[in-house]
Amino acid sequence: MSQEILDGLAAIVNEVAGTPVADITPEKAFIDDLDIDSLSMVEVVMACEDKFGVSIPDGEVKNLKTVGDAVAFIEKAGTPA
Amino acid sequence: MTAALRLPAGRPGSRILSVGSYRPARVVDNDEIAARIDSSDEWIRERSGIITRHVAAPDESVSDMALAAASKALAAAGIAAEDIGMVLVATVTHPYQTPSAAAEVAFRVGAVNAGALDVAAACAGFCYALGIADNLVRTGTSEHVLVIGVEKLTDFLNLEDRGSAFIFGDGAGAVVVGPSDHPGIGPVVWGADGGQRDAITMTQSWAEYRDNPGEHYPTLVMQGQQVFRWAVGEIAKVCEQALATAGVTSDDLVAFIPHQANMRITDAIVRQLKLPEHVVIARDIATTGNTSAASVPLALDKLIETGQVTGGGLALLVGFGAGLAYAAQVVELP
Fold first, then answer.
1. Structure pTM?
2. How far apart are CA B171 and CA B289, in angstroms?
3. How many CB atoms lie within 10 A of CB B252?
4. Is B232 in Cβ contact with A43 (below 8 Å)?
5. In angstroms, rounded to a whole number, what is the distance separating the alpha carbons of residues A15 and A7?
6. In this structure, are residues B51 and B289 in contact, taking their beta carbons and an 8 Å threshold?
7. Which value does ipTM take for this structure?
């Protein structure tokens, strides 16, 4: 798992929800563990698109339950086919 | 030889002369709504910033509320109703296909010399109508224009729909637009994206309901996340365009008055715009809810009434909503 993406995502979650960066680890669920609700999640997704240059469609967002899910998706989406 | 057509003399600008508003007497808190949608006061506040909203009486119509707001705006401007050249009513909740709410309001307010037209651009409607009014006055077509944003959204809600029941309220706001020796309403920036028509729509058409009368009558339905993403992603850019087109920057503003869609959308747009500290942000939604086309003039009137802004300063207005229609402009405060 890319540490760089994890760190970038942690910074985004921290900015949107104020969650301490140290708490943002791959196994944490956005909604249940990190105080992110459905609207904050949209903000996180939009910031990720900007930061990592990837596209995360609305239909995909519901599959990104944990921080690890999001890192894996961004890694895959950012890899040239 | 064909005779040459003559045009009226144009004006260097138009401006908002006055504002008037009407909020229905009944105030509904979150507890009353939460009971029907398996929710809570805290959940509604967190997701929308709404604490209370005003709800019209069953026998109180769109036209009644529009008339109340319009009468106040006319009195404040000191303009006689017969001197109004056009009445524009922005609404999507006047419950008749025809005649228009504007024709009814023009008659009731005594605007006997005015044209009358409804503007159906949902939550963007007031800013659309204001853009049209500015053009009418500047071209010399109309001396004064009465612009009203009014909604009775509670007539078109399913009170058991968790995605929308807590958001909307009723009310009306009106302004009188008249000539000015300098531009007091900046160029309007507007557009729409009908490709996203399903983001905010009705559950079905009236024709479908006629054929299936056992179902719930047509009500508003919204894809919250899709709307949030569009609003946060696109509306900050529209705001920047409105500032640039008017030749000003956010440093020149005294107030930002966005459509009161959801406090979270306002917060996210404000973050993206990086507005200077001195700019007052309209947050009327807390006690008014989302009143669609009425929200911008209601929020404008609240800022003036509470002394948060004084006349002459510049405010950025932006409306956005169903149709995914939007409109924004910079205005000089009355």
1. 0.93
2. 10
3. 15
4. yes
5. 12
6. no
7. 0.80
